[in-house]
Structures are given as C-alpha cells and as structure tokens.
C-alpha cells in the first residue's frame, strides 16, 4: 500500500469509489458523481490523497474549505471514501491519519466532518482518529425525499494554530 496525491488522471477511479459511496445512501447528500471540473473546483488544491494497492486506487480523501473568509483559512471539511471491496481493512484509518498530517503541513488547524447518524463505520473511523462529536443536526437535509440527521465531528490540531 502507498499513498499519493490525487491527480486529474486518477479521477475515473475516484469517481467510481464516490459512486459506490453514493449507492450506500448514507455517505453524502449528493445523488450524482460530479465532473472532474466540479470536483476539482470544490476541493483545496492541497490535501487530496489516495491510497493504492499495486497501482489500484482503493480509497481517497480530500478537503474543502468551510468558508472563503480569511479567518477560516485553517478550517476544512473532509471527504473520505473507501472502495466497497476494500472496506474493513484499515485503509480508511491509514488514509485519514495521512490526511491529518498533510493538513497540518498545509496550516489547517481544524478538520470537520458532517456524517449521517447511521453511518456507524465513518463515525467510528473519525473517533479512532481523534475527532470528537461537537453537534447533531436533526433533519438537516433530504436525500431522495427522506430527511436525515447529521453528526458533526471535528479534530483540532495540537500543533497548528495553537
């Protein structure tokens, strides 16, 4: 296993894993995989990582700004998706730990994540990587006409922005 930065030519594999996440119904409120251009413009240029096994992309993570206001320049929301065939093997934890280190190298002091309350694997992953629950948003959004609750988790760096 090795971790590399996501490049545009990786996007078909990123999109496939994202589609697998969409199909669970509890990974995102989105219902369609975005184009490369839309995905690229919504994520920070740094902190786009993927884990590979024998050159096959198994999982990816990326950060999005929570605000374009200068005061929030060190706060980002994370996305992390693991290929269906690779789930339960510890790749998510390895990748999230690498993303945390990379985010700190890029002056990010707070990572946050909004997680469906029924996405137990993601909630546990975040907890295992030092995130804490900071909130709960009841019926915050709909997907396919169904209201869902969201758990808000965050991790504050102990080395950046202290």
Keywords:
162 residues; alpha+beta; Aminopeptidase; 7-stranded mixed β-sheet; 4 helices; 7 strands; 28% helix
Description:
The structure is a single chain. This protein is globular. By secondary structure, the chain is α+β, with helices and mostly antiparallel strands. It starts with a strand and ends in a 6-residue tail after the last strand. Strand 4, helix 3 and strand 5 form a beta-alpha-beta unit. The model has no long low-confidence stretch (mean pLDDT 95). Helix content is 28%, strand content 36%. The protein has a 7-stranded mixed beta sheet. It has 4 helices and 7 strands, in the order E-H-H-E-E-E-H-E-H-E-E. The chain has a single domain, classed as Aminopeptidase (3-Layer(aba) Sandwich), CATH 3.40.630.
Short structural description:
The protein has 162 residues and is an alpha+beta fold. It has helices at residues 11-24, 36-42, 91-105, 120-128, and strands at residues 2-5, 48-53, 56-65, 75-82, 110-116, 132-143, 146-156.
- Residue share in helix: 25-40%
Taking Cα atoms only, what radius of gyration do you get, to the nearest Å? 15 Å
Instruction: Specify the number of helices.
Output: 4
Q: Give the low-pLDDT segments.
A: none
CATH architecture label name? 3-Layer(aba) Sandwich
Q: What is the helix/strand order?
A: EHHEEEHEHEE
CATH class: Alpha Beta
> Overall 3D geometry?
globular
Walk across the major sheet and give the strand order: 1-2-3-4-5-7-6
Give the N-to-C terminal Cα separation: 33 Å
DSSP strand content: 35-45%
What does the average pLDDT come to? 95
Q: In total, how many domains does the architecture comprise?
A: 1
Number of strands: 7
The fold-level CATH name is Aminopeptidase
Q: Which sheet architecture does the biggest sheet show?
A: 7 strands, mixed
Structural class: alpha+beta
Q: State the CATH superfamily name.
A: Gcn5-related N-acetyltransferase (GNAT)
